[in-house]
Amino acid sequence: MRRAEAVAGGGPVRAPRTGRPTLEEVAERAGVSRATVSRVVNGQTTVAEDLRRAVEAAAAELGYVPHAAARSLVTHRTDSVALILPESPNRVFSDDQFFPSVIRGVAAELDAAGKLLVLLTTGSAEARSRAERYAVGGHVDGVMFASLHDADLLPELMLRRGVPVVCNGLPHLAAPCIDVDHIGGVKAAVEFLLAKGRRRIATVAGPQDMVAGRERLDGYRQALAAADRRAIVAVGDFTAESGHAAMRQLLADEPDLDAVFVASDLMAHGALQALREAGRSVPGDVSVIGFDDIALATYCDPPLTTVRQPIAEIGRSMARTMLRLLEGREVEPLTILPTELVVRTSA
């Protein structure tokens, strides 16, 4: 006896169906035409509500899932948006909590809108070329950039190729930009140090090829100039190692400094270590203020006074702006999110 017939009752058993359900099968189950199913699947609004419900019920019963490539040919949409981080994977997936916070904000908004997030890192020329081919090849509906450097030509190239772009940190582009009030936040921090009686206030600035690095240094200089104080500057690259090295340089050059504004919490963490190694107490000998208010700030020794920027909200705002662009709606060319000083023990 054949295996298909060896069952209770003696009736034949059909082999399980293979392959994905087709539009034709959904149409037959729903009692409508293939064209009606296609219009429902592709989100067209010209289908009567009772027919739409019948198609959706049939698709659910059969487990029908639209073929993404075929659907994109009709709708000219992939329902995917790329987030490009112009850093190496080692930097993005390091102890720098800026990147996961931005990603979390972007992902939350896109997920709520039924869109997929494609994450690309472009820390090398080869990675930039791959990202360019991927984006302009129509694999995503738009591209968001965070942590941009001045020399990065990829956003401008995307714009020239007609790809919708939203960026963080490069406001001169002809694309919507989301950023924070770097200058105002730093001025508040330096003014706080001055009010505490600190007079020789140094800074560990961020990279000067990034808007965040330049504007935080500008805020520091403006606040000191208003108080008729001299600027004392070292430059890092937003890593803890660079903060440690810059703090050691400042102590060697200006041993009588009594406060330091550090342009990121991660660099401030390195600066605190350098101060401990030099036998300087914080805040007794030297007050320290950072910028970001990542989780690390609360676990520093002592807990770090810092300028809070809403990092996850940067990601959410970028995603919301991109979604509005894709819907053909007007968007603000520049959105500046507020910062605030969070006082802890280090200052």
TrEMBL record:
Keywords: DNA-binding, Transcription, Transcription regulation. CDD domains: HTH_LacI (cd01392), PBP1_LacI_sugar_binding-like (cd06267). The keyword Lipid metabolism does not apply. Residues 21-75 form the HTH lacI-type domain. GO terms for molecular function: DNA-binding transcription factor activity; transcription cis-regulatory region binding. This is DNA-binding LacI/PurR family transcriptional regulator. It comes from the Bacteria. Residues 22-45 form the HTH cro/C1-type domain.
